[in-house]
Every structure is written in C-alpha cells, then in structure tokens.
Write a structure and sequence with these properties.
The complex is a heterodimer. Chain A is an alpha/beta fold. Chain A contains ten helices and ten strands. Chain A has two domains: 200 residues, Rossmann fold (3-Layer(aba) Sandwich); 83 residues, no CATH class. In chain A, helix 1 packs across helix 2, helix 2 crosses helix 7 and helix 7 runs antiparallel to helix 9. In chain B, helix 1 crosses helix 2 and helix 17 packs parallel to helix 18. The longest helix of chain B is centred in the last third of the chain and has 20 residues. The chains are: A alpha/beta, B alpha/beta.
C-alpha cells in the first residue's frame, strides 16, 4: 500500500541525500553551526543522515563574542549530544581591536563573521561547509544553488553558477576552491517550526517568551544580556526594563531586535509567526546596510 | 481580490487564532508539489507567481510596503501593485526588468507545500528552463491570451516533454485584456491541442486566468462562467504526484554511502528512487548481480517495516555482499540494465561547444564515469522540432547522440526512471557542468560485445622482455623537435637492449588516421586512436614513444587514464612559438601565416601546454642529443 510522503518527509529525505553526497564526494567537510533554530534542524538532520554513525564531520561556530549567553550554553550541549567535535573560531584581529556592534557598525559583521568565516575555513582547510540558509529568507538566496561554489578567495559569482539538475550535484572543484552547501534550501520558516515540533528538537529558550531585561537603542528593542559589558562599550548603562519578549531570529545580542510577545510554547510561537505581518529578517539590522541589494553584496564578499 | 478568496483567508486566520493545534495538525500532513512556470517576460509569469504568493498569504506587511513603493518607482502597472517585483531577485535583474536565472519560490495551502521554479523564457536560457524542469512534477505554460500559441509556447512545451513532465497546465493568461472572450480562448486551446499531440503530450489541463486580476486563481471567476474546470490553486492541490507513481515501480536505490560505524554494522545508505522495500525482500546489487535479502531498514527514529520512493534510508542485508557507492540496490527479479554504450538526448549548457570524442565526466545518480560523446546524430530546433544535421552542440542546443562510457553504468530509460536515466556532464579540466542528458536505451553492440579473457597477460609480455612498459608521450608545437628527440631517445634505449616502438604523428596520419583532418573533433579522435594503439603496445610489454602535437590537456589526460598508474610519462618539448616558427622545417608555418593552411596549432588553433609535465626539455638550451640523454636519465635512473 503506497502512502504519500508528507512535505516534511520529502524535505528531510532531500536534506539527508545532500549531506551524504557531500560526505561521499568531498575531502574535508564541516558543518557551520550558528546555534539558531535552522542550525538546530540541520544538526538534527545530520544525526539522521548518518545514524548509527555519528555525523562524520565537525561542527564549527564562527563566534563574535556577542551572542546570547543561552546560545553559548546550548552550543556545547548540542555538540556533545551529537557526539561531534566542536570548533569555535574567533577572528583574532577583531578580538584584539575590540570590534563591537556599537562603535563599528557594519565592520562588526564584516570582521567577525565574513572575515572570521574565511579565516576559519582556510585555517582548517575545509573544502565543503554546510550552512543553514534557506531560499525563502531573502531575494538573492532564492537563486542560489544548493551547492554554491566559492573561489579560492571565497567570492561568489551569481552569473557563473553551475546548473543544478535532478539531484545530481557536481561537487568537483579546483584546488583551493570550496563549496558552501545549503541542505535547507527548500525549507520555509513554517517548515522549520513544524519540524522542530514534530521531532522535538531542542532550541534556544530565547525563541520563547519570558520576562527579560530590555533596553531601547536607535529605535529598536534589545535584550540586556550582559549589562556590564553593555555599559563598558557604550560608556553608560541604558535604562533597563523588564518586558515579556522573545526572538524570531538569533544573532549578536545588540543586533537582534526582540519582539514583545506572550508566546511561551512552540505552538504559540508558530501561531504568532503565522499571524504576524512582518517578515523574519526584519528584526535584523544587518540586511539594511546598503539598501535593497545588501545581502547579495555581502555574499559576493564571502559572507555565508 | 474578490470576496470569496478574502473570506477564505479570513477563515484560515480564524483557525490559527482560535485553535492553533488543530491548524498545525492539519498542516502536518501536507504533501509537496514542485512545479515550474514557463513563459516570457510579457506573458505575466512573475505576476502570476506574485499573485500565488499573495493569495496564499506568503507576503508580509514589510514586503508589501516595500513592494508598493517599488511599484511606484519601477513598476509597470501604474499605481497598482506590480507583483512581478516580488519575484525578480538579483539586483542586475531588477534593473534590467528581466529574470535571468532560475529562482525558487515557496508557498503553502492546507493541502500542499509548493516549490515553484521560476524559469526565464528567453531562448538563450534553455539551460535554466531545463534545470527548473528537471525536478518538477508539473509545468504551468503561460500564454498571453492576446497573442495565442507562439514559438516560445512550443519551445517550452517541447522542453517540458523532453524532461518528462507529465502534468501540463496551459494557463491562458491576461483574459481580462480580451474581455474574457470564450471563443478566443477556445481557439487558443484548439490550436495548442493540435500542437501538443504532435510532440507526444497526451494530456494537459487548460484554464483561462488573469494573474493580475486574480481570475480563476484561488476561486472560480464570475468573469468566466463558461469555464467548467477547477481554479489553478485547486488543480495544483489535487494533481497526482510523481512520487506516488514512482512508488508503484520496481524497487531501486542508488547507494550513496556505506555506513560502517563498527565491525558489527554495515548498512547501505541512499535515497530510494523508485518502488518500495521491506525486510525479507530479495534484492540484487548492480552491476555485480549478486543477490541477498533485506535484513533491516535502519533510521534514526527506529527500524522501518517498509520504505518507499522518496525516502532516505539505510538498508542492511543478510549476506556479506560487495556493495559500495555507485552500486544500485534493486528488486532481485527485475533489475535495471547495465551497459556502456547508449543513445541519449543531450542539452548543452556551456559557452564552449561540445567536442565529440573528448572524454567528459558523466554523473548519473551516484555513479561517476568517464564518457565520450559521438558526433550528434542530429540537433533539434526547439522552435520547430525539426531535426537538423550537426557536428557539435552549442550552448542551449539540444541534440541526440551516442555515448560510450569507460565503465558499465546501471541505468534505466529516462522515460521510466528520472533518477537512473538523467545525467550531468562535467568538464574534466575546469569542472564546470557543461551538459545534461536523458538516456534512451543501450546500444545493441554494447550488449553483444563481451571482453574475451586471454591467458597471457601484460605482466607475462613485459616479464619476457625483462622491462617495465612505459609510454613516453612527447607533446609540443609543430617544429618543436618532438620527432627528432623521440628518435634519439629510441636509439639510446635500443642500445640498452630495450624493446621499443616509436609512433610518429605524420606517419600515423598516412595510415591508421588518414581519414582525419585537423578540426578540434578530428584532433581528439586522432589522439584517442593513438591512445588505444599505445595501450595495446604497452600491454604487449613495449616501451612506446609517441610524437604528436596533442594540443589539448583533456586528451593527454584521457590517454594517461587508459594506462596503469605511473606508465604514462608526459614529456613537454618546450619550444617557444617564435623559435619553432623560425625553424619551420616543413614550411608549414609559412603556409599557415599565408592562410593556405587552416587549424594550424599555435596560429589559428590553440595549444594547451602541460601544467605539470613529468619531464620538460628546453630545446633552446639543449641539443636533441642532450635532451634525449636527459630524458633517458630521468626514466632509467643509473643504479
């Protein structure tokens, strides 16, 4: 008796197939892990793809030192649970210059994330890196291939992308070139949430509403995750108020806007997402840097 | 938007607000449909996709606000919202107002999740349409109601048919601009019906729509009371899926990865291409043909009682049979074919035209082999479906050709099995995906010609001569000194009691290759034949010296790949063009410069110098005798 596979089953099967192709055809893959919900789903799929073996590659977090404390806690636990080696990389240049989102604006993302990622990939000699990006996130992502080639200097050229037919992926590359692989390309935000629910995947508690210390900065609402450091960098302590907040997306604490919310369970979070009237990345400051083509420009420079 | 559809959206909102768990339960069991939209810029394709996203509530307020401001700035619809702006992604495209690459869009209803491949309609982008069509269950072919069936409609339909899309929707768009005129609509459908039958499309579903006004998109429109079919969205929600059909076919699973966490566990991981499998099923491993029985289907969530097409699983067998990546697990009594010569439809996707005879990598499911393509039997004019004579395939050209692979492939006809019949072609040097193809059938000669095993092997031949076979492959420009140096080397080796043979380019062209000229294709065939002869001589135990310009890296690599590791020695006779031209022993450069000799290497035909030759001799600094002595010392080090 044939049963029609559900959309989640098909998405899962596709992601697993992609991961197995990478492991079979590349020399040294790594999974980039940002501790967000997409990363959590990607890691879960990796466990499934290779079970009963542990995923045959390390997890790597390109850190900015400005992530939420809850994220750092889950990062260690998730890697241990999966039986994977966790690599944490911080751009030493950004560290020594004390680059932070308040004083340095776009340079913060460029140095910690874009340059940090390039340095980390070069340091370990990874030739393939899994990333949790989805095509529904942003316009230029909609056209990116699942296997996205980068030159030896990590550049992306949208005009010379390889055609990608059926599920026959061309993984060949010259020495020094690398591939960014996006196994979640065809997932949407709703798919991710449904899968988190169905598979009971552990995610950072910040996605759920709770009373948290907040401050307002340049018109946005942020969480005071580390007030002492905030005061140190800003030179003063902004007014901190307890509010019931949560996050739709997680990045650096001073760059990720909170939303006031009462959604404290998974289904309430999904409910809020479905009824919401603004898109997911809206809370992120990073996309607005250079107007409309911001993300495309970042990717050409090597941002994931 | 009309009243019915907005109230439907309201009801969905109400369910989300009042009973989110019921809503989620309903959405947990959606199926998934992948489709493509084909049409030109003017057919309203982007507008239709924008409409589908909008009507299924996939557009957020901030996107809508941005869209409204964009519409006023660069839209083509005056003060109204230009949905097309939603889906034109890259900055360059937005500026030019055209879609230049495949973009994937997502929306969902309670029945299904949809992935739309938005494909450009321009002829030069056949490559993108083929890419989008390769994963689609269904195609929406858009027609501008004012224009009817156009050349591009035929092209899109033909490509969809070639890529095996079974469900075709003919969406006659912009009905609002012809006042919803039924007779005009009927005439278009009749026109298309005749054409579709001529290219083998047996069924299609036609519907009158307006992407801009929303007619017959989510609900039936009051403007077309004469239309008796379903609205587009309903059709998309209910049409039969390819995965359901695939599950009814015989079981096949290309093995991606052997899962071996410890000595007690050995599982074969893969995505099931067709059919179903359960523990106890007899299976066969292809190409070896060995049989076993399924012991278990292992997944992270526990062992499965059965699995079907579209699932990624790990299968354990009862017996210790050889099975690795590239093999195919199949139902035991109806295995797929194994062959090394095929006829296939090929779509060329690279700026550099196909070179018949050149070896490309061919990837089919999890198998990667070296493959050469013969000169095409014909190319197909995608506008008229005429078969035209062709010597090669250029970018965006489709043709039919025979393919030979260096190892047997497990395959099925593309029409039967997309996963085991669709392949990509990869350039061995620059790694680009240069083409894609659909296998038709294996050629009889490959089924009937078997390798005859002989008792005296190459080691026996070489052993008797007390030497190790070698191929000294001299490459360089005409007049560089290849033949002279090779001749000197052979004299030295002969004095050392070595059994040798020298194959010279000009001499071979007097006999074996006298039917070949100097086009790129003939040059490749020239080297292929010489490669085969060289291999036979090396098998006979000889040290073979060859003196051919052999201008292309790919063919020198092809010969290297024919021989056992370490037997191919590439010797680059490095003479600058000016020096070779100044020597001009045979007067050929002069003729070439005067235009009396075409396709002359270095003049109007390229020479690709070796990137990492085993030996390089510089003929400006060395005499032929010195060069020969240097080479002999490299290959026969003094003990």
């Amino acid at each position: 008796m044939t049963r029609t596979l559900t959309h989640l089953e098909r998405l899962e099967a596709e992601s697993i197939h992609i991961m197995r192709e990478v492991v079979s055809e590349t020399a040294k893959p790594v999974m980039l892990y940002s501790v967000g919900k997409d990363s959590a789903v990607m890691l879960h799929l990796a466990k499934k793809a290779f079970y009963p073996s542990p995923p045959p590659f390390p997890l790597m977090h390109v850190d900015t030192t400005w992530k939420f404390k809850d994220m750092y806690a889950l990062r260690e636990k998730a890697a241990a649970d999966a039986g994977m080696n966790l690599l944490v990389y911080r751009n030493p240049d950004a560290e020594s210059r004390g680059i932070n989102p308040f004083d340095h604006g776009p340079l913060h993302t460029d140095m910690w994330k874009t340059q940090g990622l390039k340095q980390a990939l070069d340091k370990y000699g990874f030739d393939a890196a899994f990333g949790g990006a989805r095509r529904d996130e942003e316009k230029s992502r909609a056209k990116e291939r699942i296997f996205s080639f980068r030159t030896a200097s990590h550049g992306w050229d949208p005009k010379s992308q390889r055609p990608e037919l059926w599920n026959a992926y061309n993984t060949r590359k010259a020495k020094g070139e690398s591939i960014r692989v996006f196994p979640l390309s065809n997932w949407t935000e709703l798919d991710i949430w449904q899968y988190v629910m169905a598979e009971q995947i552990e995610i950072v508690p910040l996605y759920f509403s709770a009373k948290r210390p907040t401050y307002e900065w340049e018109g946005g609402l942020f969480m005071a995750d580390d007030p002492a450091r905030l005061e140190q960098v800003l030179g003063y302590l902004p007014e901190i108020t307890e509010r019931s907040i949560r996050f739709r997306t997680l990045g650096c604490s001073p760059l990720t806007g909170a939303v006031e919310s009462e959604a404290a369970t998974l289904s309430e979070v999904v409910q809020e997402m479905l009824l919401t009237t603004t898109s997911e990345r809206q809370g992120r400051v990073i996309d607005k840097d250079d107007g409309d083509a911001s993300m495309e420009k970042k990717k050409q420079e090597g941002y994931f | 938007m009309d009243k019915t559809s907005s109230s439907e959206i309201y009801q969905t909102d109400a369910l989300i607000a009042e009973d989110i768990d019921a809503y989620l339960a309903a959405h947990q069991n959606k199926s998934m449909l992948r489709f493509i939209t084909c049409g030109s810029v003017d057919d309203g394709k982007s507008t239709l996709i924008g409409r589908l996203l909008y009507d299924s509530k996939m557009i957020f307020e901030d996107q809508l606000a941005a869209l409204e401001s964009d519409s006023k700035k660069s839209g083509t619809q005056g003060e109204e919202i230009d949905f097309a702006l939603l889906v034109d992604g890259l900055a360059a495209e937005r500026e030019q107002g055209i879609t230049i690459d495949v973009a994937y869009r997502f929306f969902a209803t309670e029945q299904r999740k949809f992935i739309v491949a938005d494909c450009p309609g321009h002829e030069q982008y056949t490559r993108n349409m083929v890419t989008g069509a390769s994963t689609a269950d269904l195609a929406v072919i858009l027609i501008d109601a004012r224009k009817g069936v156009l050349v591009q409609t035929r092209r899109h339909s033909f490509l969809c048919r070639q890529l095996g899309i079974r469900n075709i929707v003919l969406a006659v768009n912009k009905m609002d601009l012809i006042d919803y005129d039924q007779s005009k609509y009927d005439a278009i459908v009749a026109d298309y019906t005749a054409f579709a039958a001529s290219i083998g499309i047996e069924n299609f579903t036609a519907m009158p729509i307006s992407g801009f006004r929303g007619d017959n998109i989510t609900t039936l429109s009051a403007n077309t009371p004469w239309y008796v079919g379903a609205p587009l969205m309903t059709h998309l929600e209910t049409v039969e899926l390819d995965t359901s059909r695939d599950a009814a076919k015989p079981f096949r699973m290309p093995v991606q990865w052997v899962n071996r966490p410890n000595l007690d566990f050995r599982g074969f991981s893969g995505l099931i291409a067709t059919g179903m499998v359960k523990p106890g099923d007899p299976v066969r491993v292809l190409p070896s043909g060995k049989t076993s029985t399924v012991k278990s289907i292992v997944t992270f969530g526990g062992e499965l009682e059965e699995a079907s097409a579209g699932q990624s699983v790990t299968i354990c067998l009862e017996d210790e049979v050889d099975c690795s990546r590239g093999n195919v697990l199949s139902v035991a009594d109806a295995p797929p074919e194994v062959a090394d010569q095929f006829e296939a439809t090929i779509v060329w996707m690279d700026d550099e035209a196909m070179l018949p005879g050149r070896a490309y990598l061919l990837k089919l499911a999890t198998q990667t082999v070296s493959a050469t393509i013969q000169a095409p039997k014909y190319e197909i004019n995608v506008n008229t479906m005429e078969h035209l004579a062709a010597k090669t395939l250029e970018l965006n050209v489709i043709g039919v050709a025979e393919i030979t692979t260096d190892k047997p492939l497990v395959f099925e006809a593309y029409a039967e099995n997309r996963a085991l019949g669709g392949f990509i072609l990869i350039d061995k040097i620059n790694n680009r995906t240069v083409g894609a193809g659909m296998l038709h059938f294996s050629l009889r000669r490959s089924q009937n010609v078997h390798w005859q095993a002989t008792s005296i092997g190459r080691e026996d031949h070489a052993g008797l001569k007390n030497q190790k076979p070698l191929v000294l492959w001299f490459t360089g420009l005409s007049g560089s000194g290849k033949s002279t140096i090779a001749n000197e080397v052979e004299k030295n080796l002969n004095l050392m009691n070595r059994h040798t043979f020298l194959l010279d380019g000009d001499n071979i062209r007097h006999g074996l290759n006298k039917d070949l000229g100097f086009t790129d294709t003939d040059r490749i065939e020239n080297i292929r034949r010489v490669g085969e002869v060289t291999r036979l001589m090396a098998d006979a135990g000889l040290i073979v010296l060859t003196a051919f310009i052999s201008p292309f890296r790919a063919e020198r690599q092809m010969v290297r790949d024919m021989l056992p590791e370490g037997e191919f020695v590439e010797i680059f006779v490095d003479t600058p063009l000016e020096v070779a031209e100044a020597r001009d022993v045979k007067g050929l450069y002069k003729k070439a410069r005067e235009g009396k000799l075409k396709n002359f290497t270095g003049i109007d035909s390229p020479y690709e110098a070796p990137e990492a030759p085993d030996i390089t001799v510089n003929t400006v600094a060395m005499t032929p005798a010195e060069a020969a002595e240097y080479i002999v010392r490299q290959i026969m080090p003094l003990k």
